[in-house]
Amino acid sequence: MKTKTYYQNSNQIFPTKGIKSKNKSSSKSIEEELRLKKINQAVDLLKFENFCRKEKAIKTIKVKPTDYIFGFNLGDSLRFSENAKLFKPLLKYNSFISYGKTQKLKFRLKKNKKYEIIFLKVDNTILKEIITNCESTNLQDFIKISALSYTASLNLKVMDRIQKLKETKKESLSEMEIIGHIYILVSLIIKQYLREQKQSEIKTSCLRNWEMSELKKISKEIRENPEKPYTVSGISKKTGVSIPRLQEGFKEMHGMTIAIFIREMRLQKAEQLIRKSNYNISEIVYSIGLTSRSYFSRIFKEKYNCSPSNYQEKHAS
Q1: CATH code, domain carrying 257
Q2: Which of 36, 75, 288, 314 has a CA-to-CA distance to 112 between 20 and 30 Å?
Q3: How large is the greatest C-alpha to C-alpha distance in the chain, in angstroms?
């Protein structure tokens, strides 16, 4: 199967166009897309999507052993191999790091399963240089490793960062901002690896897969429609997740409670409206689901260190 490279022509950070291929040797085909986007000289982003119609299939992806490979499984569980002999499980929402181990990653696919894996290929020289210059000495233990094969359990912050990148239009971020998001994502999984290696206490999620799925859906809804009259009890009823587990999940994924997350999304939307719309401040207050202009002014100033009116004046065209 040929792989086409997409550069600046896609308006998504994760490319949305690719090449579909079918195995013509069998009536039971594999429908798949393999898409590559070169972010810059140091970072490539590869997204693999597949719906397998064969009883069994092996998908091989070539990699450079000199690159760090960070993989994130968003689809059905599968098994993968770095040495073509031992196939390890990769569960849904699990991640992995591969470095210096192989030139080929192999994935064992099963019939009627939907697969979606995102790969970040990062040049080892650049990553080591960034970590070396980083003030945090914790990460420097990572670059001392000559070869690595690591599978990470569910990390809500990692999955949330990927979801944000998937939903972000490319033109809304500069290349530097995109790279920043990617390196934050990489640092999260590196830190998880280092914590496990040191056998320290790891804060892992106790959420079930369906609870995780509901948490992601309601987080997306709040981001897109922060003006709705959300309540914690209402969200619990809608998702079927208990209030304590909802709060725990939001703290793990977003680092804040549900109420604060809603407030942050409202403030972000208000900031965008102030910069890009002709609404006055009162109209913006009501459009984000608030009723008190004084309360809005106070929390806006706390976040942006500037009153809404002054902020609007600064960004007036």
Answers
A1: 1.10.10.60
A2: 36
A3: 68
Q: How far is CA 182 from CA 23, 39, 82, in A?
A: 34, 10, 24
- Structure-model confidence comparison of residues 31 and 117, the more confident one: 117
Quickly tell me which residue has 């009501």 as its tokens: 286
Instruction: Give the list of residues 6+ apart from residue 14 with CB closer than 8 angstroms, or none.
Output: 37, 45, 47, 118, 165, 166
All residues at 6 or more sequence positions from 216 whose CB lies less than 8 Å from its CB, including other chains = 159, 160, 163
Q: Which residue has the tokens 């359990």?
A: 153
Q: Domain check: are 192 and 271 in the same one?
A: no
Regarding whether 189 and 262 lie in a shared domain, the answer is no
Q: How far is CA 112 from the centre of its chain?
A: 25
Classify strands 20-21 and 30-38 as parallel, antiparallel or unpaired. Answer: antiparallel
pLDDT digits (tens, 9 = 90+) for 157-214: 888 888 877 776 655 667 777 788 888 888 899 988 888 887 544 455 667 888 988 9
